[in-house]
Automatic annotation (TrEMBL):
It comes from Brevibacillus panacihumi W25. One of its GO terms (biological process) is L-histidine biosynthetic process. The modification N6-(pyridoxal phosphate)lysine is found at residue 222. The gene is hisC. Residues 30-355 form the Aminotransferase class I/classII large domain. The keyword Transferase applies. This is Histidinol-phosphate aminotransferase. Pathway: Amino-acid biosynthesis; L-histidine biosynthesis; L-histidine from 5-phospho-alpha-D-ribose 1-diphosphate: step 7/9. Keywords: Amino-acid biosynthesis, Aminotransferase, Histidine biosynthesis, Pyridoxal phosphate, Transferase. Belongs to the class-II pyridoxal-phosphate-dependent aminotransferase family. Histidinol-phosphate aminotransferase subfamily. InterPro entries: Aminotransferase_I/II_large, HisP_aminotrans, HistidinolP_aminotransfase, PyrdxlP-dep_Trfase, PyrdxlP-dep_Trfase_major, PyrdxlP-dep_Trfase_small. Gene3D superfamilies: Aspartate Aminotransferase, domain 1, Type I PLP-dependent aspartate aminotransferase-like (Major domain).
Length: 362
């Protein structure tokens, strides 16, 4: 077999460890997963009802254009229906962007560490990577703008950033957008948009009018609690959307996903309540981290990256033996750290009890 050589350089995505796997390996009956930034409160009950209502339609191909979801979202966001592109999760939107804009002889600028898929897709397309280190866990937008050159086609800004959880502010983003040439696509990955409470966080949809080289990516996987339904969307100029339509698979979002996403969108009360509970859970964890003198990055997401000053993989394994799955920082470019998803109050307490042993026993 002779696969294309360069794809073998793209790392295979390492997902959070599945619950069933840990139960079997450690002989546990109760395991909690705080590894993949999933919503511990599930999804809106209305989304479940919407899925059930579609169960007689499974033999029928989905609406490839996601028309009803498109209309609803366009109204919700105040953009034209033609300004939206749907993907099989944001992951597929990232892939479509790379496929449409990157190739050998081009380069792409991103932070380091940031969400792994920007890098993988760029490698697959044969583009050169320009990775700009984070500054105190935050995108160094000045250095990123300075790194852009004639061959740059795409710049990725993960805001809030995964895995650090930090944001760039409106002022920082605007200064950056002014510097980036209009021919260069700027991707704003806002997978955690709905979790953010900081008033300095940029509202980017209105910026599309001034910056036609911008695409905003959001998803139903995180606060909406629909990760398994695989629906993400991009908001951009009609020109960018129509370029991406050329590389989109015909039926990339399914009927169940589209129906669930619509219902979830119409239940903003659920979103607000998850955001509030998440902030309370964040405080529950960080208050204790402060007490223990641990350094962590200020997070506007539903996860926190904390420095335990111990071998990440060892701590990860110790937590597994307590029935808690987190994400080892060494896999994410932050050795010594763990990335922990905010759980329910009860899950957080269980995590803190296990962590206390690890922190104090060191
Ligand atoms: C979770 C995540 C995604 C992918 O989300 P899906 O919509 O489930 O594909 C994209 N970007 C970031 C930063 C994420 O954390």
């Amino acid at each position: 077999m002779q696969p294309k050589q360069r794809i073998l350089n793209a790392p295979v995505y390492q997902p959070g460890k599945p619950i069933e796997d840990v139960k079997r390996e450690y002989g546990l009956t109760e395991v909690i997963k705080l590894a993949s930034n999933e919503n511990p409160y599930g999804c809106s009950p209305k989304a479940k009802e919407a899925i059930v209502a579609q169960l007689d339609n499974l033999a029928i191909y989905p609406d490839g254009a996601s028309l009803q979801l498109r209309w609803d979202l366009s109204e919700f966001l105040g953009v034209k229906p033609e300004q939206l592109i749907f993907g099989n999760g944001s992951d597929e939107n990232l892939l479509m962007i790379a496929r449409a804009f990157l190739s050998e002889g081009t380069n792409t600028v991103m932070a380091k560490p940031t969400f792994s898929q920007y890098r993988s897709n760029a490698i697959i397309e044969g583009a050169e990577l320009i990775e700009v280190p984070l500054k105190d866990g935050v995108h160094d937008l000045e250095a990123m703008a300075a790194a852009v050159n004639e061959q740059t086609r795409v710049v990725w800004v993960c805001n809030p950033n995964n895995p650090s959880g930090t944001i760039v502010t409106t002022a920082e983003l605007e200064a950056f957008l002014k510097k980036v040439p209009k021919e260069v696509l700027v991707v704003l990955d806002e997978a955690y948009y709905e979790y953010v409470v900081d008033p300095e966080y940029p509202q980017t949809v209105p910026m599309l009018a001034d910056y036609p080289n911008l695409i905003i990516l959001r998803t139903f996987s995180k606060i909406y609690g629909l990760a398994t339904m695989r629906v993400g969307y991009g908001i951009a100029s009609e020109e960018i959307v129509s370029a991406l339509e050329h590389v989109r698979e015909p039926f990339n979002t399914g009927t169940l996903g589209q129906a669930a996403a619509r219902a979830a969108l119409h239940d903003q009360e659920f979103v607000v309540s998850c955001r509030e509970k998440n902030r309370a859970g964040m405080k529950q964890l960080t208050d204790r981290f402060d007490e223990w003198g641990l350094q962590y990055y200020p997070s506007q997401t539903n996860f926190v990256l904390v420095n335990l000053n111990q071998d990440s993989n060892e701590v990860f394994k110790k937590l597994l033996s307590h029935g808690i799955i987190v994400r080892s920082g060494s896999a994410l470019g932050h050795p010594g750290y763990q990335r922990i998803t905010i759980g329910t109050a009860e899950q957080n307490e269980k995590l803190l009890r296990a962590l206390e042993e690890i922190v104090k026993g060191a």
